[in-house]
Amino acid sequence: MGRAFGFISVLVVVAVGLYLYSTQLRSATAIGGGTNPTGAANIVGVKGDLLGIANAERQYFASEAKYGSLDDLTSGHYLTVSGSRPPYTYDVETTASGFQVTATRSDGGTPAKLSIDETMQVQQSN
């Protein structure tokens, strides 16, 4: 009887450990936009798009002496990125002294917003 109780105790401890491990694994991969590798690759792609748009803004400013909208960048052939990468859409806000490019997620996942400005630092908000 003692051996059976010991074996059942070991099984319960292993089950609890596996549950905690799977919960930890899910929360660690959710940052990438989901629990699959596609979500993480999507976030990397969005960050690359933001950097590309920010570089296009710098080039546009160097030639035009002002920051341009997403349409200005595309029509001037400074940029080949489209206005979105589902589930993210891009928006550019400009002022006389700078710009901010924002990628907003439409399906409520995380991260909800990614942005970059003239400092070329990608910021993330949930």
What structural keywords apply?
126 residues, Pantoate--beta-alanine Ligase, Chain: A,domain 2, 5-stranded antiparallel β-sheet, rod-shaped
**Secondary-structure element order, N to C:** HHHEEEEE
Give the tally of structural domains: 1
| Tally of contiguous helical segments | 3
Main β-sheet: number of strands, strand sense, barrel status?
A: 5 strands, antiparallel
Mean pLDDT: 86
Task: Describe the structure in your own words.
There is one protein chain. The protein has 3 helices and 5 strands, in the order αααβββββ. With 126 residues, the protein is α+β, with helices and mostly antiparallel strands. It has one domain: Pantoate--beta-alanine Ligase, Chain: A,domain 2 (2-Layer Sandwich), CATH 3.30.1300. It starts with a helix and ends with a strand. The mean pLDDT is 86.
Layout: helices, strands, pairs:
Elements: H1 2-29, H2 37-64, H3 70-75, E1 84-85, E2 88-94, E3 99-105, E4 113-117, E5 123-125
Antiparallel strand pairs: 1-2, 2-3, 3-4, 4-5
In short:
The chain has 126 residues and is of the alpha+beta class.
